[in-house]
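Need a sequence for this fold. Nothing fancy.
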């Protein structure tokens, strides 16, 4: 289902999931806010949340919940958001002013590039279990395998992305318990044909392990800036221009490195908001992981937590928690795409 909806379609959808309330004459309709700001509607069918966005600014709301969430991290003071008996969505004057003030300061977005495909890569699989945690509890022993945890999270992320971005390819490198080599994973991504101004992003999902059973927390890895890879094939370049291939590769590498860092930062932020109250944020890391360094596109590797830490392992086997992890990664990817696909021109 396409997540970007018209005002009428969003109001119809919200009416299915929310209770009606009396609307004060002081309240401002969502249609008025959209007309004033030019903001775009989105709807998350998993959580029944509305989203208004413009440029790189986002407001999340839910009818009946007395606050707004700004840019996935800042919660406003108490405001009122209701669905009227006739089906419209209304904000208190304070809430409407917050939204209008936020969007009035942003620049006008103009699309210059499109993300064609999103590759979600659940690590390991089949004969390769990845990290394994084995623990003795009062009710017996339990075992947790990395390959199972990351597949559950990856499939959740992919499902959310498919619901949101029907215009993009959302590809899982594996959707079952099967073994796929590191080479095959990046071949899947690198084999996608791109048109002009089209791009791919690559997110590999893993869980951590350590000899120290107290090691804990999630982290997001990207390729270090000093690493270089050949992005252009000199066999496709005219012979008299072949000497510029290294220069062009360096330019492309710099661009992809910056985009990978931005993608990593966005996912880190999404996870912090979603699960930061339950797990430590170990921050951003640099490493030349094979599965990342062979991908010719913005690419990151997410470590969800430590399988070898008993407390985290118990958390990582909880499906409701894994859905929150998926929500955080999804929000990070979505935020990156919204920013990546737009270039801003102040004052236009």
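Here you go.
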């Amino acid at each position: 289902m396409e997540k970007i909806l018209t005002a009428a379609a969003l109001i119809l959808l919200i009416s299915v999931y929310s209770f009606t309330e009396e609307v004060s004459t002081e309240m401002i309709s969502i249609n008025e806010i959209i007309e004033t700001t030019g903001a775009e509607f989105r709807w998350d069918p998993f959580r029944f949340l509305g989203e208004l966005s413009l440029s790189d600014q986002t407001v999340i709301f839910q009818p009946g919940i007395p606050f707004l969430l700004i840019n996935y991290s800042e919660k406003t003071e108490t405001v009122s958001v209701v669905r009227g008996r006739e089906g419209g969505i209304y904000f208190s004057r304070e809430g409407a002013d917050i939204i209008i003030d936020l969007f009035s300061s942003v620049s006008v977005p103009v699309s210059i590039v499109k993300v064609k495909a999103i590759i979600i890569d659940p690590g390991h699989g089949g004969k390769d279990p990845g990290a394994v945690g084995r623990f003795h509890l009062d009710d017996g022993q339990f075992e947790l395998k990395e390959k199972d945890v990351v597949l559950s999270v990856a499939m959740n992320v992919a499902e959310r992305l498919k619901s949101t971005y029907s215009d993009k390819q959302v590809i899982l490198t594996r959707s079952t318990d099967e073994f796929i080599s590191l080479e095959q994973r990046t071949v899947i991504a690198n084999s996608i044909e791109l048109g002009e101004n089209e791009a791919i992003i690559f997110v590999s999902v893993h869980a951590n392990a350590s000899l120290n059973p107290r090691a804990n927390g999630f982290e997001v890895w990207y390729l270090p800036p000093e690493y270089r890879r050949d992005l252009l094939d000199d066999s496709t370049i005219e012979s008299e221009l072949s000497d510029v291939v290294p220069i062009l590769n360096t330019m492309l590498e710099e661009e992809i490195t910056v985009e990978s860092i931005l993608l990593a930062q966005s996912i880190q932020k999404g996870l912090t908001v979603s699960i930061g109250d339950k797990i430590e944020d170990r921050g951003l890391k640099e490493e030349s992981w094979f599965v990342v360094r062979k991908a010719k596109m913005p690419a990151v590797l997410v470590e969800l937590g430590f399988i070898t830490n008993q407390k985290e392992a118990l958390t990582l086997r909880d499906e409701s928690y894994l859905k929150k992890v998926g929500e955080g990664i999804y929000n990070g990817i979505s935020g990156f795409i919204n920013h990546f696909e737009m270039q801003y021109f102040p004052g236009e």
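For context: The chain is about 35% helix and 25% strand.
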